[in-house]
Design goal:
eight-stranded antiparallel beta sheet; Jelly Rolls; 258 residues; 39% strand; mainly beta
Length: 258
């Protein structure tokens, strides 16, 4: 496990875990604190084919500017474009499964019918290559909306909002059990990732399960930052950093990987 921070951010060891803190600041600089087990590795050497992740966590606010969370991903934004990645790798399509907190400036979905902000249980599955990537790349300079539409046909995803009541209808392959979680209180989170199924638990209760299981290899990531990434339906794709008027933190304990 590696701990990484920007200047004036901190990761403090607690009795049973870690406290990840970023300072207050304006939108002129990126601030993050992150723990991961893949730093310095190429994606083909990421450590996990499958995993059950369990921990307890709480945050300083239910509406943190930027993003925060814990789970697994393939660090697709390889050129410092996202979530603290600093290795000079080419970007790739996302494979990820996590508990994910995203402020309202984010829109982390390539479809129009799934939650893209708030506190989410979310997964993405992508191939290494797909024939539609060629027209998607050609369309990018002319129509970001068309590029997003093509990416939505390549990238499979599933998600549910956890911080508010969920009312959308699920299809037969996704199961929603319960969907109201207060991230500012201590909760126990468990994420089960296997080849054909992913499941999210809060306080030992199943809150969501899906067959959209990301392709390996993946790395563990636990983070908090002031960044946003948006892939909205209108095609106005954007990235940037946000002001956080108050210091922000994510505390975890009792981390277990099986």
């Amino acid at each position: 496990m590696k701990a990484r921070t920007t200047p004036n951010a901190n990761i403090d060891k607690t009795e049973n875990g870690y406290l990840l803190k970023i300072p207050a600041g304006d939108s002129s600089s990126y601030r993050f604190a992150q723990i991961d087990d893949y730093f310095g590795l190429s994606r083909r050497k990421f450590p996990h084919h499958s995993l059950t992740l369990s921990l307890r966590a709480k945050t300083s606010s239910s509406s943190l500017p930027g993003t925060w969370g814990f789970g697994l991903w393939n660090d697709p934004f390889g050129m410092s474009l996202g979530f603290g990645g600093k290795r000079w790798q080419l970007p790739t399509l996302p494979n990820a499964v996590w508990f994910f907190g995203a402020s309202q400036q984010n829109y982390l979905s390539f479809t129009d019918n799934k939650p893209a902000q708030g506190f989410l249980a979310q997964s993405f599955r992508s191939p290494k290559f797909h024939p539609l990537l060629i027209p998607a790349g050609l369309a990018l300079p002319f129509s970001r909306k068309q590029t997003r539409k093509l990416l939505g046909k390549i990238i499979e995803e599933d998600s549910v909002g956890l911080s508010s009541a969920e009312t959308c209808t699920r299809n037969s392959t996704s199961k929603l059990v319960n969907s109201r979680v207060d991230p500012t209180q201590w909760n126990r989170y468990r994420l089960e990732w296997s080849k054909k199924r992913v499941a999210w638990y809060v306080d030992d209760a199943l809150v969501f399960e899906s067959p959209v299981s990301p392709n390996p290899l993946l790395g563990l990531v636990i983070w908090i930052d002031n960044q946003f990434a948006a892939f909205p339906p209108d095609g106005k794709i954007g990235f940037g950093v946000l002001e956080n008027p108050e210091p922000a933190w994510l505390e975890i304990s009792d981390l277990s990987l099986v």
